[in-house]
Design goal:
Helix content: 25-40%
CATH class: Few Secondary Structures
Strand content: 5-15%
Shape: elongated
Radius of gyration: 17 Å
Number of helices: 3
CATH architecture: Irregular
C-alpha cells in the first residue's frame, strides 16, 4: 500500500518578511517611507514609524494565499 504524497503550498518569501500575525489572527504591516531620508527626519517623526498598522480587510484574502501556513 503506497500513499500518494500530498503537495505543499509554498509561502511567499517576500510576504512572510513584511507581514505579522497577532495572537488573534489579525495581519499587521509596517508603515511606509521609513528608510527614505531617515537622517533628515525628526526623532518624533521616526518614532511614529515604529507602530504597526492592521492590513485592510480587502487585502486579507490575497495575503492568505501568499501566506498559507501563517496562523
Amino acid at each position: 500500500m503506497s500513499k500518494l504524497k500530498k503537495y505543499k503550498m509554498k509561502t511567499h518569501s517576500g510576504a512572510k518578511r513584511r507581514f505579522y500575525v497577532t495572537g488573534t489572527g489579525r495581519l499587521l504591516r509596517r508603515k511606509s517611507h521609513v528608510n527614505n531620508a531617515r537622517r533628515k527626519k525628526r526623532g518624533a517623526t521616526l518614532r511614529l514609524f515604529t507602530d504597526k498598522l492592521p492590513v485592510s480587510p480587502d487585502r486579507h484574502r490575497s495575503l492568505r494565499g501568499l501566506l498559507p501556513y501563517l496562523r
